[in-house]
Design brief:
Elements lengths: L1 H24 L3 E7 L15 E3 L9 E11 L5 H15 L3 E6 L18 E9 L1
Parallel strand pairs: 2-4
Antiparallel strand pairs: 1-3, 3-5, 4-5
């Protein structure tokens, strides 16, 4: 009887670990934004393209900084996933683009890969074409 219960317990434990492993390897991504200034722009539709600019190559056309957005992701999330979440927040504020400003996943000009920390954050300005 004891052997039977032990085997059932082992099977249940194995099943629990099998189900928990993908969840623990899965990632989490989030972004939050704050509006700058008093002017409120209507949100953009889901498919509205949000352009992404590097810190040392801002857009050449006229723009207003209408917000600030910060994205974060777990170790298993890609830089692209974090930026995609940030684009969603930019759309919510009525933005047309984001200008990357910094964070652990954005290298400073002339930076080396070794300077990336385990903190996976990205900061950007939300731009509205002016």
């Amino acid at each position: 009887m004891s052997l039977h219960l032990s085997r059932r317990r082992d099977i249940a434990l194995g099943a629990a670990l099998f189900c928990a492993l993908p969840a623990s390897l899965g990632g989490c991504v989030s972004a939050s934004a704050v509006r700058l200034g008093a002017e409120v722009f209507p949100g953009r539709p889901l498919g509205h393209p949000i352009l992404v600019f590097e810190p040392d190559e801002p857009p050449e056309r006229g723009y207003d900084r209408i917000g600030r957005v910060v994205g974060e992701g777990s170790d298993f999330m890609s830089f692209a996933d974090i930026v995609e979440a940030m684009k969603g927040e930019a759309r919510r504020l009525g933005g047309d683009a984001i200008l990357l400003l910094g964070g652990s996943l954005v290298l400073e000009s002339g930076g080396e890969c070794e300077s990336i920390s385990v903190d996976r954050t990205v900061q950007a300005a939300v731009l509205h074409w002016g």
